Each structure stands twice: as C-alpha cells, then as structure tokens.
Amino acid sequence: MIHSLRFLGSLGLLLTSISVSGSATADEFVNIYSYRQPYLIQPLLKAFEKKTGIKSNIVFSNKGLGERIAAEGKNSPADVLLTVDIGRLDSAKQLGIAAPISSEIVSTNIPASFRDPDGEWVGLTARSRIVYASRERVKQDTITYEELADPKWKGRICTRSGQHSYTLGLIASMIAHHGEKETEKWLEAVKNNLARKPTGNDRAQVKSIYSGECDIALGNTYYMGSMETNEKEPEQKEWAASVRLLFPNSDGRGSHVNISGVILAKHAPHKENAIKLIEYLTSEEAQHIYAEINFEYPVTPGVPVSDRVKSWGTLKPDDLSLSEIAAHRKSASEMVDRVGFDDGPSS
Amino acid sequence: MKGLWNLIAGERAWTVGAFGTSCVVLVPIIAVAIIASSSSTEQWAHLTSSVLPGSLKTTLILMFGVAVLTIVIGVGTAWLTTMCQFPGRGVLDWALLLPLAIPTYIMAFSYIEVLDYSGPLQSTLRAAMGYQSAKDYWFPDIRTLPGAIYVMGFVLYPYVYLTTRASFLLQPNSILDVSRTLGASPYRFFASVALPLARPAIAVGAALALMECLNDIGAVTFFGVRTLTFSVYDMWLNRSNLGGAAQLSMAMLAMVFLLIWLERFARRKQRYDNRTTKQSKQQVFLLTGWRAGLAFLCCGLPVLLGFIVPALLLADRASRRLDSVMEPSFQNAIFNSLSLAIIAAVLTVIVAVTLVFSLRLKETPLLKLSVRIASIGYALPGTVLAVGILIPLASLDNFIDFQMERFFGISTGLLLLGSGAGLLYAYLVRFLAVAYGQVEGGFGKIPKSLDMASRTLGDASGGMLKRIHLPILKPVLLSALLLTFVDCMKELPATILLRPFNFDTLATTVFEAASREAFEDAALPALAIVIVGLLPVIYLARTSGVSLRANLSNKLTEPTVNRPT
C-alpha cells in the first residue's frame, strides 16, 4: 500500500512538473487560449514557429475560456485568445480581459471595419452565413434571408441551434435591418418552416439535405471546403456534391458576414511574442494559409480567396458594422427563447 | 512521534479534520451561490418566463423516464440473475454490468451513428425496401427526449442492478423458506417480501443513476434536449451570462436536495437485520423452456443495447484508425487520463474514509449536515463546478503569489491552477459522493460491537481504524477506488475547463473530435475509455457476487447491532 502510494506521489510530482514547465518559461513561448479547433490553427502556428522560433502552448475549449482568463487575473498565463464570432470578441472586451493591440503592422494589414474602434480585438478571417440548397430539389438561383419565412419552404429548412453564436449573429443582423418586431415575426415563420428540431453543426445540416430530410439549410461557407476535401471520411464529399451555395440578398444589401479574431490578454506574460503572433496572423502569408486551408475569406486586402472558395460563387458582403451586430446579440438570444426556436416546428 | 500519534488518534482531531475537509469540498458550492446571489435579478425575470419552465419540465420528464427504465431493468435483471437459474445466467450475471463502462456522451454519439441515415440500420433498410431518400419512410429520430431517456436508461441501469443485486444476495434464504411455508407464490414473494427488503438498495442505485442523468451534458447536447444542465451551459458559454448560469444551477441544486431527501426517505428504515448465514445462496427458481428463454432475453437485451451495439460500432470505426495508436498524442492522453484518475481516486477515497470514520466516532449534527452537503458536489454540473473552483482557486493562487513576491521575491504564478491541482480538486468535489456511499455502506455493515471490543482492548481510534476497520473494508475500499477511478476517467466538462496547457486526456480528445462531428477520430479514444472502464467493471462483477458474499459471511457471523438512526 505504502509502496503504491509513493508511486502515485511521484506520478503526481511528475504531472506537476510537466505542466509547470509548460507555463513557466523563457521568452520563446506564446500561450494561446483557443476557441478554434486545434487542427485549424496548427498549420499557422507551425509556420509562425518556423519563422520566429517562438513555440506555442495551447488550451482548446469551446466554452468558458474568457471566464477563465478573467478569474486567473493578473497571473493568467494566457497571452492571446483566439476565437470565432464577433459576439465572443465583444464579450471578451466586456469582461475586461483584453488589452489594446497597438501595432502599425496590424492597423496597416487589417481594414478598420474589421477592428475594434478601441483596438481591443482584431478580425483575422471573414465567413458568410449562406444557404446550402439541394441541387436536385431546389431550382432557384437566388434567395434572401427574408424569403426563408415564405410558406413554400414549410418542412424544408434545416439549421443548427438558434442559440449558437453563428445563428445569433444572423438574427442580430436581421434586427439591425428590420427592427425587433419584424424580426420576431420572421423568426417565428422560419421556425414553422423547419423540417426538424435544430441540432448538430453546419456539416450535419448538409448531410440532412443529402439524406433528403430537408432541402435548404443555413450554414457557414467554409464547411463546404472541409467537406469537399475530406480525404479521411470520403462520404462527406458526396454530401457536398448534393448541394450548392446560394449567397442570400446578393441583389440587395448582401450576405451576412461574421469574423474570427483575436484578443491580446490584458496580463499577457509574453506580450511581445503575442503581438508578434497577432502581426503574423494578419500577414499575407498567414492570410493565405487561412484562405487555402480553412477556406475562409482573408481580411487583409490584396490576399485572394482560394480557387475553391471562388468556385462557390461571389460573395457580396453586407456592410453592416460588426459592433452593431454585437449590440443586438442579447436581444437576438432572448428572442430565440421567446419564439421557442430550438423546440423545432410546432405542427 | 508518540505525541503526534495521540493527536491523530484523538477523536477530536478526527472531527475537526472531517469538518475541515467537508468545508473545503463546500467552497465551490458556496462560490456558485455567491455568484448567483450577487448578479442582477433583471436576467432572472427573463429566465423564469422563458428558459426555466421548459427546461424544468424537460428535466423532470427525463429523470422520470430514466428512473422508470433503470429501476425496471435493474431490479428485473437483478432478480432473475440472483434468484433464478437459466442457461446463460452465469455470463449475464456479470455482463449486465458492462454498460457501466460507457459514458453517456459516448453512448449518445454511438447511437447517433448507428441510427443515422448513412448508418448500418438505415442503409440496410433502404437496400431491403428500395427506398431512395429519408422522405420515403419513417424512422425514429434518436435526437429527441425519448431518445435521451433510452440512451441514459440503458447505460445507467447498472447502478440499480448493482445495489439491488447485492441486496438480494444478502437476503438470507430463511426468509424465502418462511414465506414459502406460509404459502406465498414466487411472484408474491418477490412483490411483498424481497422487493420491500431491497427498497433501500434500489433507492441508492436509482439516486446515483439520476444524479448521473442530471449531470450529463454530452448526450443532451448531441440530442438537442434542453435540460437544466443544458441551459446552465448555454447561459454561461453562449450568452456569457455567468450570473444567470449560477442562478439556474441553484435551481438544479434544489432538485438535487430533493433527490437526496427522497433517497434518505426511502432508506429511513434501512436497518434491517441482515444476518447473513454461512450457507451460500443458491438460485432457487429453476427456469426451463420458454421461461428460461424469456429470462435470457430479458437479461440479454440490456447488455446488447447498452454495451454490445455501441462497443461494436466503436471498435469498427476505431479499427479504421488503428495507425493513430502509435501517435504520441494518443499515448500522452492515455498516460494523462490514467495518472490523473488514479491520483484523484486515492485522494477521494482517503477523504471519504476520514469523513465516514469521524461520523462513526462522534455524530454531531453540524458535522452530519456538512458531510451531507459535501456530497452534493456529485450533482453539480461540471461547468458550474469548474466556475466554483476556478474563481476561489485563482484568488488563492494570486494571493499566494502576492505574499511570496512580498516576502521572498519569488513569483509563484498560478501555483494550483497551473499544476492541475484544480482538476484534482474538481474530481474530489464531484466524486466524493461515489466513494462516500461505498465506504459508508461498508462501515455500516461492521457491527459496532467490534468497535466496543477494540476499545475495551485499549485501542485508540486511529489504531481501531488501522487494525479493525480497514482490513475488513479492503474489498469495499477497492471498489470505491475503482468506481471513482472510472468516473474520473470519464469526466469531461470540468476537465476541459480546468486543465493546464497542452494537457489532453482521452475524454477531451473524444470531445474535440466529436465537437467537429469527426466520429471516426473520436472512436479510438472513446474505445480506450470504454476498455479502461471495463477493468473495474470486471473486478466489481467478480467481487460483488461470490467473494462479497464469502467476505461478509466469514467476517460478520455475529448479528448486526441496530443503531438508532
């Protein structure tokens, strides 16, 4: 018994020393808290390390990282927080965990519309929330978000949860354009057009079109790329082949656009490295990787979208400001509750 | 040395120690309560009008369904395997425990895959019937509330099976003999004698299963079933509303208290005099023909649906990714999972023994209350627990850092959180109830007369624990260790939030893959969790039957002394 306790004790020490060596470091490190999937950012971090010799430590979670930084306070090991969605960038700002990013390079690389007016977050990529339509069963070539409320779509629409930040962003933009009252009516109507209760991620919606469960679905653009190029699970190529992308409101205000971005932690222990990383992520090289590997829209002017993304059609972005979208997020979320959107179609 | 020993041996030291420990366990719960009460009530209005009623209803239906399912399956199979003899009984006896190795989130996404449009069932169906698309035929959707009840019922019933089975085994044959002499039919004996006697055991098992069910976040997320736990998550992570999340978790805590109270209520007359006899129990009802077939089917079905189907699917998908066994990231995850779970399990059991033993020495109302409250950590949803730990621990870290800097000029940084101590803390709080229940049950079976004898012979309390209790409790301690170990291995939400840099466990690897719906990448680590989870199940299966009986009958031939409750 004593023997095994000793063994456990040393295991514990080992464990402790491993993790401590990860955070207590010399300056060639940068610590990243990431809401983005590790496999998406790994290529960028490798390229960054090659270039600068700065290694990165990552904690990935899809929840609670902002709160963790806030709680850790001035001893927080986090240097940067990588995240998707303007809502999350904005709430990081509200939590008071962000420091202004003052860098000539960043402000030259990224247009002001993709940066926080106070400099507390920087957008790194753009994506649009568009409509995936069945090649077989949907003949029209254009669509609008407003049209999703049309009874002709009854039982034909699939989407992920209304409380997911991607959906909230879209609803917030509808509120900005049409006001709360109109939007609530619209959301109610869309809910009644749903084919089923909102579940799964955007990829799962495309699969549902493939299986015939629904005809159109809301989804982000880059999912198409990851399905089309999925060598590990080739059946996803078939899903992708069963749909095409319709960019909503192309003849009007344009399609809803959201961003992924980064914040610099207020108490970043490796601030210089963190700035270097952020600068790198806005560089032409990194933006090119984002475009080619993640199939997102680069935000640095002059960096082209990938050929694959081009093949899906032309994006006309809605130029509604990101901070306005962020401002309506809370009302959007409460509206989703009120309408009971996530309970699915009522009849 | 002698003085120290006296101190350890002293009863007061035990009480103080136990009180201190239960306070440490209480801290996260108190922290959440403070966050809940100090945040705005404006949000609360919105919660009570839109979120709370729906999720409360969903949660209650889910719990009711899971309770019915686990009790029916658990009690039914326990009865059949302990009291009846039929072909295959010997195997089913332990095989019925297998679903215990599968966490609800793995079960849920396995079933999504099994019942999916492109899954084996629907593909076969389409091929057989010539259907073209999902619109041509009706197929049940697993991503619903009934789906969640099904999935949870079939992995959680072993809790009821385990406790009820032990209770049936401990019921002496003499009871059966008496009721037979009085002319009771086997059904009557089951309904009016054996079942009421097993009621406390059923209550314990069902309460454990329901707490697991209340805690689950994986399955309900995959299925889009909006329970209270789901809403707490949603509130915190989607809406960045920590206060609202804490307020909702207080509502959850109320349910947990209710559950604990119900369990205690069901157990209120627990002190049945289970005088075990030396003769070992034999299966008394010999089933033949269709009855035997039916019994086999009834016991086989839960094993098939709760273990074989998901395990086969995982094995099939994992076999396509066998090359990643050699990847260092996978091996690291295994090492991390194992070492973390072992340390946490040992720590938890030590604390549980301390608490139970102190209560046995001296039962003060305050201590009793704090111990009872300490065990509700089991029902605290992982994310909420993480918040409750993160915030006080980070303040402590920052305080230590400040003091060290001031007096010694050393910055210690985030000493506890950065080292993973926060994770161990979370596991302790979360799983203390599991170990506590086991240890308490074990102590309860040791007659107080042994304590008296030991005292009469001049043992101090520490010596009594060492020389009398621990040796008798060995099998109980081992099973407590194993149960806690497996629970720690499976734990997901708190692990995600509290882990240090670059620290992946099997559970977080599964989660990462599952959250991008890459089922095949999740299969191998999921299978690894299931396999490791099997070890204690096998152990439990071996000991809970034969040797538990032998242990008890050898050691406790003297009558149990009824303690006033």
Determine the strand fraction of chain B and express it as a percent band. Answer: under 5%
**Amino- and carboxy-terminal Cα gap of chain B:** 38 Å
Q: What fold name goes in the CATH topology slot of the largest domain in chain A?
A: D-Maltodextrin-Binding Protein, domain 2
CATH class of the largest domain in chain A: Alpha Beta
Which runs of chain B of at least 5 residues are low in confidence (pLDDT < 50)? 272-279, 546-565
Order of helices and strands of chain A: HEHEHEHEHEEHHEHHEEHHEHHH
Number of domains of chain A: 2
Q: Major sheet of chain B: size, sense and barrel closure? A: 2 strands, parallel
Overall 3D shape of chain B: globular
User: What is the number of helices of chain B?
Assistant: 23
Compute the average pLDDT of chain B: 80
**Strand order within the widest sheet of chain B?**
1-2
The sequence of SSEs of chain B as H and E is HHHEHHHHHHHHHEHHHHHHHHHHH
The count of DSSP E runs of length 2 or more, i.e. the number of strands of chain B, is 2
Low-confidence segments of chain A, ≥5 residues, pLDDT <50?
1-25
Biggest chain contact: A-B, 68 and 64 residues
